[in-house]
Design brief:
The strands form 3 sheets. The protein has a 6-stranded mixed β-sheet. The longest helix has 18 residues, at 195-212. By secondary structure, the chain is α/β, with parallel strands linked by helices. It has 14 helices and 13 strands. A hairpin with a 3-residue loop joins β9 (232-237) and β10. α6 packs across α7 (165-177). It has helices at 6-10, 67-72, 97-102, 119-123, 125-129, 134-147, 165-177, 195-212, 223-229, 248-253, 258-264, 268-273, 303-313, 332-346, and strands at 27-34, 44-51, 56-60, 82-87, 90-91, 104-107, 183-187, 215-220, 232-237, 241-246, 296-298, 317-322, 325-331. Bound molecules: adenosine-5'-triphosphate (ATP) and magnesium ion (MG).
Amino acid sequence: MAPGHGPVDSLEMGSDGKRAESSAAEIVFRGVTKRYPGRSAAAVDNLSLRIPAGEICVLVGPSGGGKTTAMKMVNRLIEITEGDILMDGQSVRSLEVIELRRRIGYVIQHVGLFPHMSIADNIATVPRLLGWSKARIHARVRELLELVGLDPVHDPDRYPRQLSGGQQQRVGLARAMAADPAVMLMDEPFGALDPITRERLQQEFLRLHAEIRKTVIFVTHDIDEAIKMGDRIAILREGGILAQYDTPDAILANPADEFVARFVGADRSLKRLSLKRLSDIELLAVPNGDNSTYPTVAASTTLRDALALMLEEGSRELAVVDEGKVRGLCSVEHVAALLAPERQQQE
Ligand SMILES: Nc1ncnc2c1ncn2[C@@H]1O[C@H](COP(=O)(O)OP(=O)(O)OP(=O)(O)O)[C@@H](O)[C@H]1O
Ligand SMILES: [Mg+2]
């Protein structure tokens, strides 16, 4: 459907005028291959994977592994050579490019805001293309600025150069979400930020995602970011070959081969510990109910940090506190035991 006409706009609204339920779409790569002209080797080689609606799938791997290529075939910025990509069962090749991109938000590396346009105009790019009314755009821009933690009153009229890198990245995120897409593509969205800003935006994005539950394809070459952000991780090796696709925990527990084991790092057991919090595990009872001799730790602490604390304190046990009450103990043996048996179970 052509842009700027009512019918596209009305797809967004229920008959009662309320916003249709915020959607997410399942994405399926089915034997997808990309060969660039003049190159014999494939950039992406026979890639098959299913991303359930509402999940974050991280594509990770060494430079040149085909991550960006795989992602850009979803919104057809790059054409598929062989195979197909399905969005809720529908081939992306069968959809009009404009309709496809309306349903897919795109956040690129280095933000890519239009420098001569105000923040409001940047965010309104797609809604304007869809012919939304001024009032609706105005309201949506403010709603989005608030959602990504910017100032809905003063920021709309500013220009990208007047914002910090982290703030610009938030605007990029708001712009990608403007038309409430079912899918978000994010190519190294936090790659250019300092570690502290990066960590903050990662946390905020995870919180935001818990609220809006879009299907997200997130590209990074940083395995730690992949572990933190991904419900599932797809590791692509040179030549665009899928080395492993699974949850972070399963990949860390059982790397499929030497390549994956090297890629996730020798400290993969410790990385696995950072995926779980004390509140997720069964605690030991306090002997005789006397917990006064143990160092205390909050239940929201990760197992990795709890282990570090035990080493620091020279204590083999910690009392786990939640809402001001001791809930039980965790011990070094306890944490170690959680790593070993599960690995055997899965093998
Ligand atoms: N337009 C193009 N024409 C020809 N070859 C290309 C083109 N774009 C990418 N390639 C090649 O395809 C392969 C995969 O590139 P791609 O950009 O998808 O990798 P990537 O995993 O995103 O890498 P990075 O981590 O460096 O961003 C590389 O060998 C690259 O040289
Ligand atoms: Mg890339």
